[in-house]
């Protein structure tokens, strides 16, 4: 990679990192969905029993899935996409955006939402 | 807010709640495998400096490490400590009250009583059939047995006439029993609602002020990540502050898990830099609280000294005849009183060289631990003789009317006596005795000690204190809660309204405990004990003030004998004197699990 501050890079190894990051992102999303479902199933009867716990538990499960687990997975996805670009061409962290990923690595990872980011009107 | 009915509580599937807790625990382990993989396979593997080396590469590795760190903290703080622990705690609490209902509801039905009224204030009343049975002189067998009359088997025979003449007793007895069941039911539901609301609060508060996630790679990342890192350094302090201020919603057990999850340096920094967030907090281990509280005590004495000097200076410039002077003088006296009280407490628990003092008593002598103090109202002091976190037996004394910081020496003397008695009763065991003046005690017998508000005001704090002892102590510690005088009322209110962690409850010289039955206390009735000596005027307290005397026959539980002091002594306060070795030895046996 031709970048000012890059001294060494093995693109294949970076791409393997990308795959792991995407894989964990996907598993985290799937597992968060499963725990949120279990949570909601237990919260249901508690809500029917008019406990204070029932609604709070359901909200906690949704919050965990939507904010924390999703947030973690999303950060991994973002880092993975950045690295996917790095494996193809130099890009500074501050210059990176989803459109860069689409233009450089979108064809390699077509299943990702950001693969078509450069076609969006806001790009 | 909990709107749980007794029928709902009876039918709740506590096993499902607990299973969900297990599911969350397993989920946490599953997720930790992801962060482990990030570290080993990405940061130290494919993305190591060997394959990817530059300032940017270092930054990316840091980003992945930060992301993993954040997720691990989230899993610990939220998924495990908040969600899973809340589920386990509330399942245990619901199940405990369910078991009470399983015992109570059949008794209500067997006696032909009915549960009526709104869910917040259930009534247990005589059914129409029972009314009719009593009115037609055909009372049920259980009622005849309770009143000591034979059940009539014909009209106008001798037994019927006896029943007729005992009619008032029949009604009174039936209503009295219904009243006891009502107390019991209300206590069960009060504790269940309390546990429900606390669990909901723990989960809701979790979402209120969540920690920030690391920023995403992209524009302004460099600035954002600096802000994030700064936030991380303040994160523990923010959590500690919220816990100390009571806005975190965390139970003492959750506080304990949070504390144990901090690094040694984080814990030390909190003790040194913010002792006010450590000393008073239930769920933080005793040693740490003691260290923090001793620092706070030093600071408060110094602060009061400075304020006194400033006030004295100000007084010199005032007209001694003026109202302003009078007010300033009164404030000065208040400050001096507070300083003297705190200095007295410090002298009691500290050696001349500043190290923690040892209490009087049999060898091995036990050190004092300061678990809390304050000068507000009549003052607060929570002092343990021996370390409750390592003890086999912990007895917590709740003192009563007129207890205050000024007279803390006498209160600690009683705890010291109880500790000595326990050590003599169980020399092979480790024991600790806590003097818990963690509430604003009534200052007067009339009218303050006649009011329930002091007990109600103390209830939640006593609940949290006992649960904190459970969280920081050994798994099988034998916990006893001993009240004296109005302290028994405090314990009764806390036990029946909020629930306390206690294996045994002991009422010494009680004016009533806010309920008419030992069954309402949430502790095995066989482990509820009462004693009042024969010359103690407290036995003249009328039932309408704080409920039936727990030393009375109908209350349930056990009673034990206490000797009187001299006839002209204040026999309400002789229970810890040498004239009452019988009572003291029994109390020591209870507190050390030998009764």
- Termini of chain A, distance in Å? 25 Å
What is the C-alpha radius of gyration of chain B, as a whole number of Å? 29 Å
Number of helices of chain B: 17
Query: Could you list the spans of chain A in which at least 5 consecutive residues all have pLDDT below 50?
Result: none
The helix/strand series of chain A, from N terminus to C terminus, equals EHHH
- How many structural domains in the coordinates of chain A? 1
Helix content of chain A: 55-70%
Q: In the CATH hierarchy, what is the architecture of the largest domain in chain B at level 2?
A: 3-Layer(aba) Sandwich
* CATH top level assignment of the largest domain in chain B: Alpha Beta
Largest sheet data of chain A: none
Named CATH topology of the largest domain in chain B: Rossmann fold
GO molecular function (chain B): hydrolase activity
InterPro entries (chain B): AB_hydrolase_fold, DUF1023
Coiled coil (chain B): 318-345
Domain DUF1023 (chain B): 377-543
Protein architecture, described:
The complex is a heterodimer of chains A (123) and B (595). Chain A is mainly alpha-helical and 123 residues long. Chain A has one domain. Helix content of chain A is 65%, strand content 3%. In chain A, α1 packs antiparallel against α2 and α2 crosses α3. Chain B has 595 residues and is α/β, with parallel strands linked by helices. Chain B has 3 domains: 167 residues, no CATH class; 86 residues, no CATH class; 235 residues, 3-Layer(aba) Sandwich (Rossmann fold), CATH 3.40.50.1820. Helix content of chain B is 55%, strand content 9%. Chain B contains 17 helices and 11 strands. Chain B has an 8-stranded mixed sheet. In chain B, α9 runs parallel beside α14 and α11 runs antiparallel to α12. Chain B is globular. The mean pLDDT of chain B is 95. The chains are: A mainly alpha (123), B alpha/beta (595). Chain B: InterPro entries: AB_hydrolase_fold, DUF1023. Chain B: One of its GO terms (molecular function) is hydrolase activity. Chain B: This is Alpha/beta hydrolase. Chain B: Keywords: Coiled coil, Hydrolase. Chain B: Pfam families: Abhydrolase_8.
């Amino acid at each position: 990679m031709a970048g000012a501050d890059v001294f060494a890079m093995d693109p294949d190894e970076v791409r393997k990192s990308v795959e792991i990051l995407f894989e964990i992102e996907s598993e985290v999303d799937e597992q968060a969905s499963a725990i949120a479902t279990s949570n909601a199933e237990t919260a249901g009867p508690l809500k029917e029993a008019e406990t204070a716990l029932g609604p709070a538990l359901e909200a906690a499960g949704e919050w965990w899935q939507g904010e924390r687990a999703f947030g973690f997975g999303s950060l991994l996805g973002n880092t993975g996409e950045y690295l996917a670009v790095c494996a193809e061409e130099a890009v500074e962290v501050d210059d990176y955006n989803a459109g860069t990923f689409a233009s450089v690595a979108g064809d390699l990872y077509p299943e990702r939402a950001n693969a078509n980011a450069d076609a969006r009107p806001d790009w | 807010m909990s709107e749980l009915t007794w029928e709902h509580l009876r039918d709740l599937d506590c096993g499902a709640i607990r299973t969900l807790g297990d599911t969350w625990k397993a989920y946490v382990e599953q997720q930790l495998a992801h962060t482990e993989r990030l570290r080993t396979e990405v940061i130290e593997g494919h993305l190591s400096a060997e394959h990817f080396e530059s300032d940017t590469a270092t930054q990316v590795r840091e980003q992945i490490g930060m992301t993993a760190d954040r997720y691990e903290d989230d899993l610990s703080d939220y998924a495990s400590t908040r969600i899973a622990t809340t589920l386990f705690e509330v399942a245990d609490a619901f199940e405990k009250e369910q078991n009470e209902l399983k015992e109570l509801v059949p008794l209500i039905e067997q006696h032909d009583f009915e549960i009526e009224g709104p869910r917040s204030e259930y009534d247990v009343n005589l059914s129409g059939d029972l009314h009719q049975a009593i009115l037609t002189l055909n009372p049920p067998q259980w009622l005849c047995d309770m009143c000591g009359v034979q059940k009539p088997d014909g009209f106008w025979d001798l037994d019927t006439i006896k029943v007729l003449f005992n009619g008032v007793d029949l009604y009174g007895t039936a209503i009295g029993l219904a009243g006891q069941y009502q107390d019991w039911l209300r206590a069960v539901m009060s504790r269940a609602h309390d546990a429900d609301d606390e669990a909901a609060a723990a989960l809701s508060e979790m979402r209120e002020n969540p920690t920030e996630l690391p920023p995403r790679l992209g524009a302004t990342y460099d600035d954002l990540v600096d802000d994030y890192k700064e936030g991380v350094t303040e994160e523990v302090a923010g959590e500690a502050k919220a816990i100390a201020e009571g806005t975190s919603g965390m139970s003492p057990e959750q506080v304990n898990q949070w504390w144990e999850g901090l690094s040694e340096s984080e814990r030390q920094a909190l003790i040194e830099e913010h002792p006010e967030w450590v000393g008073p907090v239930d769920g933080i281990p005793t040693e740490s609280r003691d260290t923090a509280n001793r620092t706070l005590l030093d600071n408060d004495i110094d602060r009061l000294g400075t304020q006194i000097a400033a006030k004295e200076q100000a007084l010199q410039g005032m007209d001694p005849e003026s109202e302003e002077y009078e007010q300033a003088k009164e404030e000065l006296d208040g400050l001096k009183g507070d300083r003297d009280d705190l200095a007295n407490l410090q002298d009691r628990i500290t050696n001349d060289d500043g190290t923690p003092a040892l209490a009087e008593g049999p060898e091995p002598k036990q050190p004092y631990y300061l678990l809390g103090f304050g000068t507000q109202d009549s003052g607060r002091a929570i002092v343990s003789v021996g370390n409750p976190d390592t003890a086999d037996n912990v007895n917590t004394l709740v003192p009563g009317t007129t207890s205050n910081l000024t007279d803390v020496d006498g209160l600690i003397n009683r705890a010291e006596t109880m500790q000595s008695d326990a050590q003599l009763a169980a020399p092979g065991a480790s024991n600790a005795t806590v003097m818990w003046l963690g509430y604003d005690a009534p200052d007067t017998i009339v009218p303050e000690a006649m009011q329930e508000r002091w007990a109600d005001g103390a209830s939640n704090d006593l609940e949290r204190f006992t649960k904190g002892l459970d969280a920081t102590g050994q798994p099988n510690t034998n916990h006893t809660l001993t009240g004296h005088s109005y302290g028994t009322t405090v314990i009764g209110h806390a036990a029946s309204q909020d629930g306390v962690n206690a294996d045994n409850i002991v009422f010494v010289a009680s004016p009533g405990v806010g309920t008419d039955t030992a069954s309402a206390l949430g502790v095995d009735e066989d482990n509820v004990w009462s004693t009042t000596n024969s010359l103690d005027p407290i036995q003249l307290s009328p039932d309408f003030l704080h409920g039936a005397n727990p030393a009375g026959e109908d209350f349930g539980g056990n009673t034990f004998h206490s000797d009187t002091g001299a006839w002209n002594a204040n026999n309400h306060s002789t229970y810890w004197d040498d004239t009452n070795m019988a009572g003291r030895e029994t109390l020591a046996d209870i507190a050390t699990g030998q009764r």
